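Thread: quick sanity check before group meeting

JM: Hey all, I'm pulling together slides for Thursday and realized we never actually wrote out the predicted structure for the chain we discussed last week. Dropping the sequence here so it's in one place. If anyone has concerns about the input, flag it before I start.
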Amino acid sequence: LQPASINQANLDIVSTFDDSLETRNRLRIVTGNAVLGFALVVLVLFLFLDVRTAIWTAAGIPLSLALTLTVLPSLGVTINSVSILGLIVVLGMVVDDAIIISESIYRCREQGMAAADAAIAGLRTVFKPVVGTILTTIIAFFPIYFFPGIIGDFAVEIPTMVIVMLLASLVEATTILPAHLAHSSEASRSYTPPGKKLMIKLETGYASLLKVAVTHKGKSSLAMIAFLILGGLISSQITRFDMFPANQSFKVWVYGRTSVGSSLTYTEQAVKEIYDAMEKIPNGVIHSTKTYVGRSWKGWTSSAQARTVGSTF
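JM (edit): ok, ran it. Output follows.
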């Protein structure tokens, strides 16, 4: 189009390359997981523990997150797409140690202990296993620090986020949580959780199953081996591996290369064929496109090349 023929009233400025989309998407995942996880934790704990224990156990998620965000600046870690990825990975782990400790304290309360004594005894009972759980998880992420090159420079924020978040949850679960549960009222001891009857039935069934497994060790081992083999065969048939699923992509990159010596006019015509194909796509699928013609890319040396990028959905 000639500049004189452009009607400014019909012009619309759109972004064709917005790297913040991925960060925003990860922030939505973190927010959604945090809200949903908090709600599910509260719901499950309400079924098996008293109200006060359930609330303070679930509160470990936002408290651990707040403590982590307070420490990260001193470590030189910012909120970016890489650190958010680490946060997504660890978000489901932060409340595990709090559940173990709160359940131990609750069990001590059921045995007739006072609230303060139950908090101390319950924490002392499970302190070593909880610390061991946190340390083994930290060890699993620690080798990422030794990734070489530029990949290691970027990936280092993932284990940092995971380790700081896990340590924050450990501090919260071993200090703040017992302190609040130590002030539980005596009325909470007489409260019967709605899921207690279900838990009794599950414990009874599990005890019977465990007795059979211990009594018939040989048959139990064969049954477990058969289950693993059968499960592996079934999963190998119904499970498909897709590293980059197309339904989760928001950018499509189309690379084209013409023969050496082709003119730019010929290359532009080749790119036009791509655009003609994109016009057949329903409206609303493609947000914008961006094209480079006659530009070297990834080591190509030909002067006539095409690159169509940025089809944003």
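AS: nice. The longest helix spans residues 20-48. DSSP finds eleven helices and three strands in the chain.
JM: adding both to the slides.
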